[in-house]
Amino acid sequence: MTTFVELLVNGISIGAVYALIALGFVVIFKATEVVNFAHASLLLAGGYLIARLWPLVGFWAALLIGVAAAALVAAAIEFLVIRRANVASHSVLAIVTIGVDIVITTELTRQIGTDVLAMGDPWGSQVVRFGGVTLAETRIVALVTAAALITAFLLAFKYTGWGVAMRAAAEDAETAALMGVRLGRVSMSAWAVAGGLAAVAALFLCVFPTPGLDRSTSLVALKAFPAAILGGLDSTTGALVGGLIIGVTESMMSGYQNDMAFLGRGIGDVAPFLVMLVILLIRPAGLFGTKELARV
Amino acid sequence: MADLAVSDLVVGYGPVRALRGVSMRVPSGSIVAVLGANGAGKSTLLRAISGTLRFHRGGCQGVVTLGGQRLTGLDAASVVGRGVVQVPEGRRVFARMTVEENLRAGGLGRTRRDYATAHDQVTELFPVLKERARQRAGLLSGGEQQMLAIGRALMAGPTTLLLDEPTLGLAPLTAARITETIKEINSLGTSVLLVEQNVAMALSLASHAYVLEVGEVVLEGTAAELRESDEVRRRYLGIGDAVEGALETRTLSRWS
Questions:
Q1: Neighbour tally for B223: CB within 10 Å
Q2: B105 in contact with A at a CB cutoff of 8 Å?
Q3: Predicted complex ipTM
Q4: pLDDT at position B52 over 50
Q5: Taking CB atoms and an 8 Å cutoff, what residues of chain A touch B95?
Q6: What are the backbone angles phi and psi of residue B210, rounded to the nearest 5°?
Q7: pLDDT, tens digit, 9 for 90 and up, residues B158-172
Q8: Which of A168, A183, A184 sits opposite B94 (nearest CB)?
Q9: Which end of chain B, N or C, is less packed with Cβ atoms under 10 Å?
Q10: What is the DSSP letter of B243?
Q11: What average pLDDT does the structure give for chain B?
């Protein structure tokens, strides 16, 4: 039972971090209709800066700079590439983002080399015990932070002028423009927010119990793709639920893999994609996605 | 004053010419109607004024000015900022957002005080929007959606309102209600450029009208002149050749 609770809480915690990534992915898709394959590289860029800067300026300042820098890089991609690309179809832009991803990831991988960078976080490898349940402090902080950020984001999305502009632009860009919504600003802010969220996610993907940031971190970030897709690419709720489903599935499958030896080792890494496939077979638009998306 | 003027407007979508040298004028405080059948270029004209041609891969030559200042070349949001706001054809309310949020989307660029004033005006004009404030806009009836679309545009505080077929597909009573409202909005000082297929309704509202045909202005004149014009009666009002109409047609500038 304690194992189960530990796995569940860990799964929810890592799921909340995936949800942060997936949320950014969904926000970009809603605002610009671009499937952003460069998302993992944004995450890597944010994480890399935090890891390199904390010995110089301290952890909290490094975190701040990393988040700001990732937001800036994302905004720059929007401004320099997405906005200027005069293409007939948004799927072409998705392929353009693959190119951007390759450029950024390759350079960062070269910088990181074979190092495993510590994030310099104040939580280290401490654990907390509730009864018989042992949890890493980092997992609890990740859960609380992700929940707070997601709540703040959803409230802003629902109640602020920025949120109304975002939703209006997502629903009908031309009419939003006719009402005076500045589409350029909307899409750039969407990219910036997504970049910032990705940097925070990078931090929590690289703290204890993982060894730290290395060149495979962007592969870990890939698990947020099935989260966004199975939730429905245009649904913020979907991103959250998708993130949690993926997190818990992965945690459970890894935790109980000895009992499921017939599935082979490493089923935890494969499980998110299996879940995504099954859900998409039943609901092609994802759990909360708009059906029209499947129409085209 | 802030007259809206269109001169020699040429618009093309790729190789297709939609407007071929259209000129017209909306004097400040007036209602001007643009009449014409489907495909005459009415909506294209409004797109060119509002700066949304790029959504349809269209390009334009010619100049649109408001009070002597160029609107051509500005993006859609800046045109709204200058006070020229369009209510698009087919209402296009944000169906997944509530009525209140739709109004908010219309008034995003305004200060808190201006917003509150505009909100009071709009809900006074359309009390139903207050009753339905929390309902999803997609669940409103056609007439209510049209009211919301007009209300949403008014939230931006327009000096010139562009209306694209506001009574299309509405029940006669609702259409009459919208017509009254347009009159009311105009009486508060907003100029209106009304694009319509419903010629009788448009001519009852407007002081001046232009008839578009395949991208060109073929007739223009005061509403009274057009009502009496043979051509308009025959083609758009479905009334047979009027014998006494022959004299009046001479007063119309006729382009061929």
A1: 18
A2: yes
A3: 0.85
A4: yes
A5: 171
A6: -125, 140
A7: 999 999 999 998 999
A8: A168
A9: C
A10: G
A11: 88
Find, among B2, B10, B84, the residue nearest to B53 by Cα. Answer: B10
Give the tokens for residue B74: 């500005």
Task: State yes or no: pLDDT of B91 exceeds 80.
Answer: yes
**Which one, of A139, A131, A146, A195, lies nearest residue A9 by Cα?**
A139
In order of their start, the domains of chain B are 4-254 (3.40.50.300)
User: For residue B58, what are its two tokens?
Assistant: 């269209």
- CA A74 to CA A198: how far, in whole Å? 10
Greater pLDDT, B16 or B256? B16
Q: Which residues of B touch A181 (CB under 8 A)?
A: 77, 105, 108
**B74/A contact by beta carbon, under 8 A:** no
For B155, nearest residue in chain A (alpha carbons): A179
**In Å, how far are B13, B22, B47 from B57, measured between CA atoms?**
6, 19, 11
Q: How far apart are CA A286 and CA A233, in angstroms?
A: 7
Tell me what the mean pLDDT of segment A10-24 comes to.
Answer: 93
In percent, the amount of chain A with pLDDT more than 70 equals 98
**Does an H or E element contain B87, and which?**
strand B84-87
pLDDT, position B158: 93
| Contact assignment for A179 to B96 by CB distance below 8 Å | no
For A178, name the nearest residue in chain B, comparing CA atoms only: B76
Q: What's the gap in Å between the CA of A168 and the closest CA on chain B? A: 6
**A171–B97 C-beta distance less than 8 A:** yes
Give the model's pLDDT for residue B54: 86
